[in-house]
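Example (one chain per record):
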Amino acid sequence: SRYATVYEAEPEGQGLPGGFDGIAAGSEAETTQAAAEEETAQAEALERYTGGNVDYLGAKDKVEVADPKHPNPNLAPFLDYVTDISGTAHGVAHAYARLKADTSYTAFRGDMVMTWMTFADFQQFLEDSFSDWAAIRVLRRAIRLRLVAGTPPDGWEALVAWQYPTMPSVDEDKEQGALAKKLKNGVALFREQIGPHWREHFEQLAEEVALARTLGLPLSILETAAGAPASKTAETQDGNAA
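Predicted structure:
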């Protein structure tokens, strides 16, 4: 809670300073063996009481206690620095360590990417060290108790997979645009974005789109890029349906 600056005087000798148990420094009693032993015992008792964190001051040492009302202008950047290096030790970038998004979109996005690399490593570690082990045993029990319909194929244990949370979006419009380009160019898969139930997702989506088309609902998926209604089939330049 408090701190002070100690200005040490020139050392005049070795040993403990006087003053314990009313023994006056420089008196004849201090020079006796009994007084020295008593002084040492008093000092050791003090050290035990404080856990050993004791620093003895000489008679001429000077102590200046800092004014508690005096602000330290370097405290805030120092605490930010400590927070940053503590987060770095755990693979957590600046924005996550401070819980402050005080940078540009690009910088914050970089913080997210670096941090989610750490999260992905931890997810993989969790999967390899525990999740797969637990899932296989649970499923084996379910198979043995006939709680699972049918007989799983040989080597089904290697097919166990997990779907973890993904990195959230900062600017949904930008990221959806980038994702659309990846899907169009074939460098991304719907399975990667939707998960192992992507077929069921498409079937449900087709059912909903068909109903929306029947009811004439204004959904963007039923429109062209220019906003015109999209037909079920596209016609080629020679008039044939594609």
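Caption: The longest helix spans residues 105-144.
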